Amino acid sequence: MSKRESLPVLSPESTAGEPGPCGDALPGHPAGDRFGRDRSALRKPDFLKRPVGKGAAVAGVKHLLRSGGLVTVCEEARCPNLGECFERRTATFMILGKDCTRACGFCAVGTARPKAPEPDEPLRVAAAAASLGLSHVVVTSVNRDDLPDGGSGHFAAVMGALRDALPDATLEVLTPDFCGDLDAVRRVADAPIDVYNHNIETVPRLYDRVRPKARYARSLEVLETVAREYPTRVVKSGLMVGLGETRAEVLELMADLKAHGVQIVTIGQYLRPSLVQVPVAEYLTEEAYAGFRAHGRALGFEHVFAGPFVRSSYHAAEALLEARRGATP
């Protein structure tokens, strides 16, 4: 294509919830604010506003996590689904500390020199998961480019402790790219897990701005390695939309994921945590997500979970169940 096929965007006068030219996108920041520097750029359309997590159930989960000295990506990444998930007594554990060695343009997790891994963290994560009564546990981590194995050994230890504590639970990892170290990838995939997730995050054209230390081809190699060498693992990946990608780029990315063995795809709206992160280009509405789901079915994915609040670990148990149903002849 000689010209990029952009998703239609509503005029600045349009209000949230009203259909645009094709009914699938709203502008990401005020007219004239090209770089999203006005604080009003952080305001979301009404359909993207969620209640702040409060109440006894939410407080109880937070107390359990703090008493165990544990970190969740729900809190550190300012996930909009925190209230809903904590009320359901579920959370995504973030291991290896809360300080990341990278500074991705979309992410709210702090960047600093991390502390050494804590040897007792695997047992603390397992104890918390058991206390919450989780039947599906998702564990992610910050990037630990400072460690020789990228933290993969610690990752494997956490999953082993979880399997010992919850022998009947399904276990899911959401890993970094380990700087392309496939032995580190295999170390985690060798652990007693059910789902291996590594997020592709965005289309390759936007990597320099959104994931400057990552490589699109490297992430595909991580996913393909697990799909090829560990056929009993469900392979999963996710991406954000609303960063300035085009519809054609998203569809091409989905085809790349399918070609590299991915079975579950998650697609959700990028929500800017603060003015420090890259601005939102547009807010997609349901029509766009319906198109992505239809395209994913046509490509043959076992499950495509797409919607404005979808995150890679949001309703992860349900996504796995749907994928397994989809894989059944």
Task: Write down the overall geometry.
Answer: globular
Structural class: alpha/beta
Number of helices: 11
Binned strand content: 5-15%
The level of helicity is 25-40%
Brief summary of the model shown:
The chain is an alpha/beta fold and 329 residues long. Helix content is 34%, strand content 13%.
Describe this entry's structure for a reader.
- The chain has helices at 56-67, 73-76, 82-87, 121-132, 152-165, 182-189, 207-210, 216-229, 247-259, 286-299, 316-327, and strands at 25-27, 92-95, 136-141, 170-174, 195-197, 234-241, 264-269, 282-284, 303-306.
- The chain has a seven-stranded parallel β-sheet, with helices on both faces. A two-stranded antiparallel sheet has the order 1-8.
- Strand 2, helix 4 and strand 3 (136-141) form a beta-alpha-beta unit.
- It has eleven helices and nine strands.
- The protein is globular and about 45 Å long.
- It has 329 residues and is of the alpha/beta class.
List the topology elements.
Elements: E1 25-27, H1 56-67, H2 73-76, H3 82-87, E2 92-95, H4 121-132, E3 136-141, H5 152-165, E4 170-174, H6 182-189, E5 195-197, H7 207-210, H8 216-229, E6 234-241, H9 247-259, E7 264-269, E8 282-284, H10 286-299, E9 303-306, H11 316-327
Parallel strand pairs: 2-3, 3-4, 4-5, 5-6, 6-7, 7-9
Antiparallel strand pairs: 1-8
Helix pairs in contact: 4-5, 5-6, 6-8, 9-10
